[in-house]
Amino acid sequence: MTQIILIIIGIVVIVLLLSRRTREQVVGICASAIETASQKQARKQKILSLFQDKRELSNTEIRAALGVSPRTAVRYLDELEREGKVEQVGKVGHYVTYRLL
Predict the structure, then answer these.
(1) Domain of 8: which CATH number?
(2) pTM (two decimals)
(3) Per-residue pLDDT of the chain (101 residues; tens, 9 = 90+)
(4) Count of structural domains within the chain
């Protein structure tokens, strides 16, 4: 009988420890997502501030200023375009620039 009680107590302790760990992981994931979102907002704000020096900017200039990949720069610029803050000048390739609205 004592062994059964000890086994049950052990199972309860393990379940409690695992559920605590899971909660900590969820909190960590949420904190990471919030940090990523704030970093994204900061980078988009930096892009907008770059337009104070120049009327039009290329993807290459934005990449260099932020230190991000070409695709990440395009993604930020697409979001700013959807938000109505910048417009794309040109269609494709090296001739594409962006202008502040």
Answers:
(1) 1.10.10.10
(2) 0.65
(3) 667 777 887 777 777 666 665 666 655 566 566 657 778 888 999 999 998 888 899 989 999 999 988 888 889 999 999 999 999 898 777 788 899 88
(4) 1
